[in-house]
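Figure 3 (text version): structure tokens given as input.
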């Protein structure tokens, strides 16, 4: 399924962050996930939630990963609320479809406010983007078909 053990891939930037082998500031974490700021934010609030275990991308997810994706979404919402984002209807949460993933390690983008994203960010993360899939759509596809299309 495109996963590795908890030690991850030593060349993977997000594995390094998840294993505290980088200077990135971890904003939230638990045994399974870490959350940090995106280095190239597409919105005032732009956070990434990544699993500690290396998973290549959203296309490698399967039906048994539904709870992982739900926990990723929960952490994304939590970091937005922690940072005073009150309108949770004005957010974008999702994944880039390969080959448009900047880092080949599963990562959920949590962005707010979506209504204030510039044109470039809209193209990358907005509803009209052909390479950004919302977390809701990923969960729906996993629950009904067992994989992300």
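Below: residues designed for each position.
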């Amino acid at each position: 399924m495109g996963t590795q053990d908890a030690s991850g891939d030593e060349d993977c930037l997000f594995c390094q962050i998840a294993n505290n082998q980088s200077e990135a500031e971890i904003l939230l974490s638990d045994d399974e996930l870490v959350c940090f700021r995106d280095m190239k934010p597409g919105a005032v609030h732009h956070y990434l939630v990544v699993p500690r275990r290396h998973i290549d991308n959203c296309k490698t997810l399967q039906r048994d990963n539904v709870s992982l994706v739900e926990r990723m979404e929960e952490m994304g919402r939590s970091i937005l609320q922690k940072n005073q984002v009150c309108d949770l209807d004005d957010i974008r949460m999702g994944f880039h479809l390969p080959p448009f993933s900047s880092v080949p390690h599963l990562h959920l983008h949590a962005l707010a406010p979506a209504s204030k994203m510039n044109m470039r960010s809209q193209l990358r993360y907005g509803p009209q983007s052909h390479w950004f899939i919302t977390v809701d759509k990923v969960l729906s596809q996993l629950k009904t078909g067992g994989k992300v299309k």
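The mean pLDDT is 93.
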